[in-house]
Structures are given as structure tokens and as C-alpha cells.
Amino acid sequence: MRAGDTRLSIDCGGASTVAVLAWVDGRASALSFDGLPYLPSAVYVGPDGEVRTGQRAWQAAVEQPSRLIPSPRRAVDGDVTVDSNAVEGLVLAAAPLRTVVAEAERVAGGPVRDVRLVVPAGWGPRRRTWMRQAAHRAGLAQPRLVEAPVAVAEYLLTTGLQLPVGAFIVVCDVGAGAEVTVLRRGPAGFEVLSTLADPAAGGTTVDLALTAALTSGRDAPADGLGDWATAQSIRAAKETLGAHPAVTVPLAGQAPVIATNAMLVEATLPVVRRVAELVEETIAAAELSASDLAGIYCVGGSAHLPHLDTVVAERTGINPTVVPEPQLVAARGAADAGAAHAAAAVVVVEVPVPPVRRAVAIAVPGFASLALIWQVLLTAEQHNLLNVYRSVQLNWGEFTMAAVFALLACLAAGTVLGSLIAARSPTPGTRTEGGKVSIGILAAVSLGAAIAGLYAVVTSQYFGEPVGPFLKWALWPIVPIVVMAVAMAVVAARQWRAPHGGWSALLAAPTGSIVTAALGMGLIQYSLTADRWPDRLLFIDIAGRVGGLLLGVGLVMALVAPLMFRLILSAPVAVISAAIVSRQAAGILGVSYAVAVAMWWAARLWTRIIRPTPADPTTPAPAAQAGTSGGGT
């Protein structure tokens, strides 16, 4: 069989690299390196610039451990300093790939032209481009990038998993770190709905904890030989303890020690708890519940960590399945990725029907906007003196709030708009989850600004007044909200981080604040324009003051979320807004509410995207782009 009939898939993990060579007749085998079914990802940079890989790298590190780079794939952002000399990160990342390709060509008997590289689902365009450049440096033809959880799901299908179209699964990839992904099976393949990662939730952290327990915090030997030798001993002990209650561990420069299964469990528990949290958070980010899933599947070099399945089951209610040979699953799946869907020419994108909660989040600001603009048009006071001097008195605050509510309604419908656009778009990038959310937010911003501008034009024409003041009051107050929304669109497009609870929950404005503020402004406008008959003066004044109180409360509800803070702030703000109710102050109150909504959006951008608060303050926040594929241990 010719070498050109083979496919090579490579899974570059944080600690080790695995590769699978597949033939068109269905045979597939994992490549071995120095007798191991994986190649250590570490590289050694010699004084002469020579880059060594695998066991040769570890052996060379005996004399100069400072020249060893344990995980070259993490050097995405630029050069790496080795003994005061800068080494290009691409050179380091290409070295393991070059070793794998050489072995693959030896086994296949010639060049392998069909190459697939497994990458984390959380990687954005920059890191994917960097990986392609590293492959080019290694002498590879243009590789095909396959997302690790998609490769795993494809492998599960080929091994007999019955998964209907529309079903959801979770792939929990635990290697040197952890990446958890929710997938949906579509008619033409698998779609990533959400993914979260934590580089500290994997085998590397377990190794460090086990090392600390065995060495009791003692320093490594002064000659520097202990680091790599101890790391190898600890890793071997960790794998052995999975089948034996105790094992003797040789340590460089120290007497051998006994490692027990209890010590491994103690070192593992914080990691498996963090992995279980990631599973729970990723399911929530996909706007699903555990009952919606068809299964949870654990893969990666650290998938057999003690109690991982138990802790995940406790958090989700689903017993996860550890796939056989978990370290090779992603590479095996990537070798056949897309084979089951080769005949599919069209990607079908379903447009979600929003549930009642999301429909309310869209309808409330929409109806509030229409109600306020309707009141503006019907209650504006027009003055015409001898058909020469004409003037119109408007409640500019109410006009501004109508524009703000129109934008909020459009943003709440952002995910639906994105799905509608993706369903009719020929561009593949818009069909990804990040692409749909991003294009949906941008479309919502454009639609909301267009509606605000339409309010200005229609109102100016209705009253026969210049359009300038109307555009000023309609568009300028919504500019900060537009800026925040565009920032979220950029985050979604880069697939940096999925917010807890999903994008739909993030884009939904607080309906309680909207209802309260809209009712308050409506009462203020009534008090300013109602016929002031003597017997109704008191009622009209009270209505205006109550409207000011409600508007102040709505403003506070937009600014802060905790109930206690709302109660504390509502009293002074509501009293002040009620006290200043007048025709001159109405515009100030409307703009103040627009500013409060912009601050609310800024707070959500910060707390949900830029600096999300972890569920447990003792654990780090998930980093959606720092995922490790299943090749790591």
C-alpha cells in the first residue's frame, strides 16, 4: 500500500504527544517512540542551538536542566529564553512534530500528505494560525485542524455509540490540564456549544502535589539533576498506583520513599473537584441541564485519576464513561474525522425558539419602548402663535428611554438574530457558536441604533421640526451601550470565554428595572401634560412624585444586583429623583437612566467575561483558551 494512502493525526498535549497512522482499509496504529506509545512533548535546546525531543531531551537535561522546555506548545506569544538566549517559540513547537513525521514516514514507507492536527476547542484564530505555522516549520503539508472534542465524538460514533441527530454530549478532556466541551450532533457533524478550560486542573498539578507530599518540601539536589529524574519517577508512580496500593519511588539525591494510594487520592481530589466544576459550568454555559445530555465521556492521559467519575457524577447526576485508551482517543478520532459526514454538502443551522423567560426579556423592553414613544407623540405640547411662531415641548428624557429600551430589546434577541443570519449565510465562520453570537450581537446593535434613529426621524417629521435635536437625544445616550455590546461581540468571535449561564442570559436586560423605570417615566409625563383641573391638582402632583420614585428605584435596580445594596441605595436616589421632577429635569432623569444601563452592561462585561468570579474562591477561574488536548498526562 502506498504511503500516500495513509493519514497521520497528531495530538500535541501539554506533557506528551501521541500520533496515529491510519490506512484507507480501516487499519490504524499508534506510533511508538523509544518503546513508548507517546512522545514526551519536552524539548531540549543545546548550546549549539540543536533541539532534541523525547527521551533524548530528558537525557540531555541531566547535565543542563535549565535548557529543557517541558511544554513548548505554551510558547504561543513569542520567544522563549534559554540560558539568556532567545529561541523562537515556533522552532520549539515544530521539533516534536518533526520527530513524529519522521517516524510516520518510516512506518508508512514514504511521505504522508494527509495530516490532521488536534487542537483545543477553546483556541481562537491566533493560536490556530500559530499551530499551522509550527506545522509548516516542521515540513508538513497544509494540515487540517480538528478540535479535540469533535475528534473524540467522531471516534465514539465509529466505535458504535448510538447518538441521534440533535443529541448533546459532554467531552471531558483531562490531560496536563482540563478542557470540558458540550457538543451537539447535527446533520453534518458536531457543533461546539460551549467550552471551558483550566490548565491547573490536570495531571501536572497532581504530579506537583504528589511530589510535595513525597519530598516533604525538601529542596532538589544542588547539582540540578533532581528535577527531571524526580518528575519521571513521580509520573511512573502515579500510573502504577492506579493498580497497586503502594509503590517505592526513587528520588534523586534522597532515599527512596513509599507512595501510597491514599497519598495519590489526596493529591487528586482538588483537581477532580475542579474538573467536576468545569463540567457543571460548561453545561450551564450551553444553556442546558444535565437531563438534556446523552452522556459524559472522559478522555486524556489523566482520565483515570482516582474518583474522577464519582465526583463528576455527584455534581451532575450522570455517571461519566472513561473511554478505553483515553490518551489515544482524540488522535484516533481525528484520523477519521468527517468520514461519516463526507456526503453532506450543506450545514443545517437551526434557529432556536426562545423559551418563555427569554421571550419575556425581548418583549418587555420592546413594549416599553413602543409605549413611551407613543406617549411622546400623543402628549407633546404644540404651540402655534398666529401660524408664525411654532414650538413643540417634548419630554426628552422619555424620548431617550424609548431609544434605550429599543436597543435593549434587540440585544436580548441577539442569539436568535445570529441563528437566523447563520442559517442563510454561505460563510462557514458564521455557523460556529462564537460566530453566531458575534454576528447576532452586531446585528442587534445595528437594528437597535436604526430603530432609535427611526424614532428621531419620524418624530421630527410628525412635528415638523429639525431632526438634529431628536437624533442627539436618541443616539448619543446609547453610544456607551453600543460600545459594550461590540466588545462582547469581539469576545464571542474570538471564543475567548463563554459566560456562565450562556450568551442569551448575558444579553438579557433586567426586566424589573425596565418595567419600573418605564412606569415611572410614564407617570412623570402624565403629571407634566395632564389637564390641571383644580380638583385634580393633588392627584397629578402625587402621580409625578410617585413616577420619580419609581424611576429612581429602576435606576438603582440597573446599577446594582444584590438586594441589600438596592434597598440601601434606592431610598436616597428615589427621594432625589422624586424631588426634582419637572419639565426641565425630565431630560436629566432619562439620560441618567441611560447611563445606569450602560454601567450595568460594563459591569456584566467585566464580571462575566473579563474577570469572571469562580464558583469557589479557592479555585482559579476557567481560562477558555488555555485548554490542553488529550495527549497530555
How would you characterize this protein structure?
By secondary structure, this protein is an alpha+beta fold. Helices cover 50% and strands 15% of the residues. It has 20 helices and 20 strands. It has helices at 54-60, 89-108, 125-137, 148-158, 203-215, 226-240, 261-285, 308-316, 329-335, 356-379, 396-412, 414-423, 433-463, 468-475, 479-494, 503-507, 511-529, 537-559, 563-579, 583-610; strands at residues 6-12, 16-23, 28-30, 39-40, 43-45, 51-53, 68-69, 80-82, 85-87, 114-119, 144-147, 168-174, 178-186, 189-198, 246-249, 257-260, 293-299, 321-322, 381-385, 389-393. The longest helix has 31 residues, at 433-463. It is elongated, with a radius of gyration of 30 Å.
Query: Major sheet, described briefly?
Result: 6 strands, mixed
Shape: elongated
- List the uncertain runs: 219-226, 338-351, 614-633
Indicate the mean pLDDT. Answer: 80
Strand fraction: 15-25%
CA distance, first residue to last residue: 34 Å
Radius of gyration: 30 Å
Proportion of residues in helical segments: 40-55%
Helix segment tally: 20
- Strand tally: 20
Structural class by secondary-structure content = alpha+beta
Secondary-structure map:
Elements: E1 6-12, E2 16-23, E3 28-30, E4 39-40, E5 43-45, E6 51-53, H1 54-60, E7 68-69, E8 80-82, E9 85-87, H2 89-108, E10 114-119, H3 125-137, E11 144-147, H4 148-158, E12 168-174, E13 178-186, E14 189-198, H5 203-215, H6 226-240, E15 246-249, E16 257-260, H7 261-285, E17 293-299, H8 308-316, E18 321-322, H9 329-335, H10 356-379, E19 381-385, E20 389-393, H11 396-412, H12 414-423, H13 433-463, H14 468-475, H15 479-494, H16 503-507, H17 511-529, H18 537-559, H19 563-579, H20 583-610
Parallel strand pairs: 1-10, 10-11, 12-17, 17-18
Antiparallel strand pairs: 1-2, 2-3, 2-4, 5-6, 5-7, 8-9, 12-13, 13-14, 15-16, 19-20
Helix pairs in contact: 2-3, 4-9, 5-7, 7-8, 10-11, 10-17, 11-13, 11-14, 11-17, 11-20, 12-13, 13-14, 13-15, 15-20, 17-18, 17-20, 18-19, 18-20
